[in-house]
Design brief:
CATH class of the largest domain: Alpha Beta
Radius of gyration: 18 Å
Number of helices: 8
CATH topology of the largest domain: Rossmann fold
CATH architecture of the largest domain: 3-Layer(aba) Sandwich
Strand content: 15-25%
Number of domains: 2
Oligomer: single chain
CATH superfamily of the largest domain: Response regulator
Order of helices and strands: EHEHEHEHEHEEEEHHHEE
Structural class: alpha/beta
Strand order of the largest sheet: 2-1-3-4-5
Helix content: 40-55%
Shape: elongated
Number of strands: 11
């Protein structure tokens, strides 16, 4: 998943970037509203964290601009203010949730996961396909309740496909959503990750969790399409 952090406090911005990087996110960061609007519209961002107090214009104004431009990405508003009016104004501008500073990173992560699930129509933190379960909170994957060890990038690929179950996802889209911009990206590596995932998740070739659609990409079928 790709997250955008818009925060003018350099130390906090770096802390947030480092935190989400450890959680497997590809991270883009901005220190101004103008830069935040640009990154949100130019890059395939899955979710954004926007501080209310930015140096050029407010986070609320940034959200308004995004919504006016029909950018519907989930937004969590960060605020150091306890005035309920600010929270209401942020939500009415188009924010999906808010969090007051200082905050616990565990709560921040829980809210981010909830927004990502909601955006894809998933109310529960555990995503399922046949005998495979992916827990978005613990980032654990099990097959028949047995934990499967995945590398960070294998997990990223599987998580993105699980969040977009039933959709055809191209190699280029996967590449954009799991790698940072400054990473030396090679879309052919996606084929390697897919091959490894198939061996780990379905060594006997029974459930076939990841389909290849030649020339189009990969897909995890919807539950109703599974034939066992």
């Amino acid at each position: 998943m790709r997250i955008l952090v818009v925060e003018d406090e350099q130390i906090l911005r770096q802390q947030l970037c480092d935190f989400f990087a450890t959680k497997g996110f590809a991270v883009d960061a901005a220190g101004t509203g103008k830069e935040g609007v640009y990154l949100a519209n130019e890059y395939p961002v899955d979710i954004a964290i926007i501080d209310i107090g930015l140096p050029d214009f407010s986070g609320i104004e940034l959200i308004k601009q995004l919504r006016q431009q029909n950018n519907a990405l989930p937004v969590l508003l960060l605020t150091a203010r306890n005035r309920w009016q600010d929270k209401v104004e942020g939500l009415e501008a188009g924010a999906d949730d808010y969090l007051v500073k200082p905050f616990h990173y565990e709560e921040l992560m829980a809210r981010i996961n909830a927004l990502l699930r909601r955006a894809q129509g998933n109310a529960h933190p555990v995503l399922n396909f046949a005998n495979i379960k992916l827990d978005t909170l613990s980032q654990e994957v099990t097959v028949d309740d047995n934990k499967i060890e995945l590398t960070a990038f294998e997990y990223k690929v599987l998580e993105y496909l699980m969040f977009h179950q039933g959709e055809v996802v191209s190699k280029s889209v996967l590449t954009e959503h799991i790698y940072n911009e400054d990473f030396d990206r090679d879309s052919n590596v996606i084929e390697v990750f897919i091959g490894r995932l198939r061996k780990k998740l379905d060594p006997e070739g029974i459930t076939k969790p990841i389909e290849t659609l030649r020339g189009r990409g990969y897909r995890i079928p919807l539950p109703d399409d599974v034939m066992l």
